Amino acid sequence: MKKRKTKAAFTIVELLVAMFLVVVLLAISSMVFRYAVAAQRAAAATAEIMQKYNAITGRLKADLQGLQKDGEIAIAWVPGIDTTGDNTVDDFTRLDRFYFFTLGNFHTYNVWPYDENGTLKQDILHGHVARVGYMLAGDGNGRRAADMPAAKRMLGRSQHLYTSKTVLNAANNPILFPNPTDYSAFTSVDNNRYEFDTITADDWRDDPIWSSSAASEKSDMVERILDVDVFPPAGGTDRGIRMNPANAENLHMLLAQGVGEFKVQGWFEAEKRWIPEVDPDGDGDFSDTDFVPNGTGIHVEQVPGIIYPYKFHALGPGYTAIHGNYDLTELDQAHFDQIPGLGSALKFTFTLYDSKGVFPDGKTFTYIVQLN
Fold first, then answer.
1. How far apart are CA 257 and CA 153, in angstroms?
2. Rounded to the nearest 5 degrees, what angle is found at the Cα of 57, between the Cα atoms of 56 and 62?
């Protein structure tokens, strides 16, 4: 009797089916892995962006809680970037900037005081009043924020506290910044280096800086702080916050990296909207712009703005372009809630980028702070 042979081999069809199933499983596994990696990268990028958002909004809230309405507030609205070199805006990315006086518990980040022998003491300065400013910073190598890729821009926060304590340099000479006998010596470099002003907040706002004989000096100082032309314009390029993240001396001014846009707007009660806006109704027609009458020639340097309380001039070379023009003599505390561009609240809009480029266009956020 013959024994029946047992079939031990696979047919070609069976092998092909098995190989197909393996390929399908590998493809599905690869797809799942790619999605998992992409989701993890997106989650990490979102967490990074939200960390930046919380740092910016937390600092804004803390600073503006102590806002001094009887102090000085300066806001410069920059409508965009000139990418062609003709001084006309063609990229409507806002690069606004402002400063104000506020109350809080402030201290210097660097050690400043020297003793009577010119020896550095391990000490920092403290104060309850500070001039605080926000703007997109230059990189410390000559590039302004407008010249940098959006994802590489840095939001800077400057802080100058007011103290009666004498501050000496290494040669045992008092540091006078700004120098009350020579305001022309006020430079952006010193403004970025020093963390204090050696005058009172009242002196900064009123006399002697605001005296008619010193009006041009104050113009120069505001221009160098905010990096905008002020009437009469002083010119020059060494202006605004200049910051090198590798420089420990001014690293404290770095609030967040990867901030592509920073827009400041105030609530305008008369028109029930936020101003200024390049294109208020968003229809692509700039004839209704808040920046230039009749909507032509939106200039990249001649930016409008306000200095509150108004004294001898406002930001911009004689600008009266803000829609719903107001009397400059009403830039006072009695009209604080009605001032266009300041008003009862400020809205901040900023675009944040992650360091890995997961979101190439960034994420845009708004944050509103009530001022009354």
1. 6
2. 105
Tell me which residue has tokens 């990315």: 93
Q: What is the pLDDT of residues 319-365, one digit of tens each?
A: 555 544 566 777 888 888 888 888 899 999 999 999 999 999 999 99
Tokens 């002697």, located at residue: 208
Domain ranges (residues) in the chain: 44-370
pLDDT tens digit string along 22-38? 888 877 877 877 777 77
**Residue 313: what pLDDT?**
47
Distance CA 174, CA 182 (A): 14
As a whole number of angstroms, the distance between CA 311 and CA 191 comes to 23
Global pTM value: 0.86
Query: Considering Cα of 322, then 325, then 331, then 335, what sign does the dihedral take?
Result: negative
Closest to 281 in 3D by CA, of 226, 236, 323:
323
- DSSP track, 21-54: HHHHHHHHHHHHHHHHHHHHHHHHHHHHHHHHHH
Question: Could you read off the pLDDT of 37-51 as tens digits, one per residue?
Answer: 778 888 999 999 999
